[in-house]
């Protein structure tokens, strides 16, 4: 039996996620994996929703630990790299985008505020900075959702021969460039 604490439960839950996918993660399976009775999980997490929120937060650790922007950074390059870091982090876990979608950023509000302050100090109008960060985040989650759905086991249908194959990273970069281009235009016009 694994010594159980909150961190162990989350780690094991994330490993279970990678093995079986989000739709098959259950407290019953997790309890079996930990060698405990299912009700003992509720000591650490009152509901499955609480467990999923903790999993989402832990899964985002690589992005949450990325360096914050420095005053001398070029805001455009930082914006691109911040969004790429978010994408890379979502891709680290099976169903990472599905796990993250709809989660509320609780532990990283100060980091978000510092990122916003950096953009504003760099000359990006506040409302545009907010909307660009939101658009980049939602665009990234949507892109990764599609990418991870394409990678699922048992994809039965072959694409039609007249449909071009999409390189996920290139498509992501093209869309990200469009978001940044719009933000640059608005910032320069403002």
UniProtKB/TrEMBL annotation:
Keywords: DNA-binding, Repressor, Transcription, Transcription regulation
Any one GO MF annotation of this record: DNA-binding transcription factor activity
InterPro entries found in the cross-reference section: DNA-bd_HTH_TetR-type_CS, Homeodomain-like_sf, HTH-type_TetR-like_transc_reg, HTH_TetR, Repressor_TetR_C, Tet_transcr_reg_TetR, Tet_transcr_reg_TetR-rel_C_sf
UniProt-listed GO biological process terms: negative regulation of DNA-templated transcription; response to antibiotic
Any Pfam family the entry gives: TetR_N
Residues in HTH tetR-type domain copies: 3-63
Domain of life: Bacteria
Residue ranges of DNA binding: 26-45
Name of the molecule in the record: TetR family transcriptional regulator
């Amino acid at each position: 039996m694994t010594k159980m604490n909150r961190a162990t439960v989350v780690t094991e839950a994330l490993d279970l996620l990678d093995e079986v996918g989000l739709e098959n993660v259950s407290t019953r399976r997790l309890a079996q994996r930990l060698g405990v009775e299912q009700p003992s999980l509720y000591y650490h997490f009152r509901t499955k929703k609480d467990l999923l929120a903790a999993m989402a937060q832990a899964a985002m650790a690589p992005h949450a630990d990325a360096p914050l922007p420095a005053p001398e950074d070029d805001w455009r390059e930082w914006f691109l790299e911040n969004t790429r870091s978010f994408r890379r982090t979502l891709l680290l876990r099976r169903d990472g985008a599905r796990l993250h979608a709809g989660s509320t950023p609780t532990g990283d509000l100060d980091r978000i505020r510092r990122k916003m302050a950096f953009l504003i100090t760099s000359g990006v109008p506040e409302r545009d900075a907010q909307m660009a960060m939101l658009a980049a985040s939602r665009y990234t989650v949507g892109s990764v959702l599609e990418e991870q759905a394409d990678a699922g086991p048992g994809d039965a249908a072959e694409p039609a021969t007249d449909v071009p194959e999409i390189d996920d990273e290139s498509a992501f970069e093209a869309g990200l460039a469009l978001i940044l281009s719009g933000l640059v235009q608005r910032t320069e016009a403002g």
